[in-house]
């Protein structure tokens, strides 16, 4: 019996592979999948996008996703957190800066009413707090989508 190729199933598998690779910080796999046309904004079987599950400490994964059009302001449907909330809470300043420069909003509250700044303060991430306070003082206007 000859099986027919199912493009939808292939796409679903590539989205699953992309979110898994992003979560594990596997830069080369992420690059290959994006370059082969996997949509960085497609959702996996759990309703999550690669930018939402990416390893926050992997700036290169974040950079690749953003370069291929990942939306940095995608909220988690339950917690309303954005990727910048996750980066701030975990103390990943480089990832936070990259997301912000790509257009991520820093003035959006999560479901508990917390800003990324609040999360960084709660966790004692002083460098992140300093950056966020400086950006707030400057009016949060460095959102230029300049990831190349």
Major sheet characteristics: none
At CATH's second level, what is the architecture of the largest domain? Alpha Horseshoe
Q: Approximately how much helix is present in the residues?
A: 40-55%
Please trace the helix and strand order, writing H or E for each element. HHHHHHHH
Q: Which structural class best describes the helix and strand composition?
A: mainly alpha
CATH topology (level 3) name of the largest domain: Serine Threonine Protein Phosphatase 5, Tetratricopeptide repeat
- Based on DSSP secondary structure assignment, what is the total number of beta strands? 0
Low-confidence stretches: 142-148
Mean pLDDT: 90
Q: Give the terminus-to-terminus CA distance.
A: 47 Å
- The CATH superfamily of the largest domain bears the name Ankyrin repeat-containing domain
Q: Which CATH class of the largest domain is shown?
A: Mainly Alpha
- DSSP helical segment count: 8
Compute the number of structural domains: 2
Proportion in β-strands = under 5%
Shape: globular
Description:
Helices cover 52% and strands 0% of the residues. With 148 residues, it is an all-alpha fold. It has 2 domains: 65 residues, Serine Threonine Protein Phosphatase 5, Tetratricopeptide repeat (Alpha Horseshoe); 77 residues, Ankyrin repeat-containing domain (Serine Threonine Protein Phosphatase 5, Tetratricopeptide repeat), CATH 1.25.40. Helix 2 runs parallel beside helix 4 and helix 5 packs antiparallel against helix 6. The protein is globular, with a radius of gyration of 16 Å. The C terminus is likely disordered.
